[in-house]
Amino acid sequence: MTQLAIGAHVDQTDPIAEARARNAPLVQFFLGDPQGYQGPEFAYAGGAEGLKADAEAAGIDLYVHAPYIVNVATTNNRIRIPSRKLLQQHVDAAASIGAKGLIVHGGHVNKADDPAKGFDNWRKAIEATDLKLPLLIENTAGGDHAMTRYLDRIEGVWAAISGTEQADLVGFCLDTCHAHAGGNALETVVEDVRRITGRIDLVHCNDSRDEFDSGADRHANFGAGKIDPDLLASVVRDAGAPVVCETPGPADAHVADFAWLRERL
Ligand SMILES: [Zn+2]
């Protein structure tokens, strides 16, 4: 019997109530619009301070997912510069609620670009950001120019940031749906990622509606997708990190997913 902490991605209005509804020791949520540049917002009635205090009192760990549009790797200044700003704003906001980590996607470069430019832009982003909490870079499912779809690119990002002063504050979030749909063998992905990064800080456990290497990012509830159930459980077991299920809700669907997973761990 393993006692891995398992929670879910939830609505940001009242993450404490959402955690309680799922009997979960951790929850992940957005702060503001996941598709917008306008910066973080606190929807919680008690504001940032209230959320921090209430989460501590309830013993609930908070994780914040940065907006999807953050792309610090791109060579496009009109995206990279606002992305860096948004990243710092979310670091500050996530730290202010006592979050355990801020999750951000690896981003991508443009078709004509050398991926090395993206790696170096990651280095610059880490150097330019005051990391007040762990920044967990997540693998993504699609695109040929992505920074964290394939292992060789993840290796490039890690090589670039490993020499920075705040490298210890940069961790990895392994998404099972993205790994599968991105074309990485789940049989070895934990070992493969750890060899590169030395760490897996969080698992996004999701089944996938799509085939292996499809490049599509469509999450499914456990057992309802194309990932072999035992393989999904083995990734969670081997990673040994807290788990966030980003599967379709509502709360009882998440509770069913937690039970499905625990049965197989
Ligand atoms: Zn994810």
UniProtKB/TrEMBL annotation:
UniProt keyword Calcium, yes or no: no
PROSITE patterns: AP_NUCLEASE_F2_2 (PS00730), AP_NUCLEASE_F2_4 (PS51432)
Cofactor or coenzyme needed: Zn(2+)
Molecular-function GO terms, alphabetical: DNA binding; DNA-(apurinic or apyrimidinic site) endonuclease activity; phosphoric diester hydrolase activity; zinc ion binding
Stored InterPro entries: AP_endonuc_2, AP_endonuc_F2_Zn_BS, Xyl_isomerase-like_sf, Xyl_isomerase-like_TIM-brl
GO biological process: base-excision repair
Keywords for the protein's UniProt record, in alphabetical order: DNA damage, DNA repair, Hydrolase, Metal-binding, Zinc
Family: Belongs to the AP endonuclease 2 family.
Protein name: Deoxyribonuclease-4
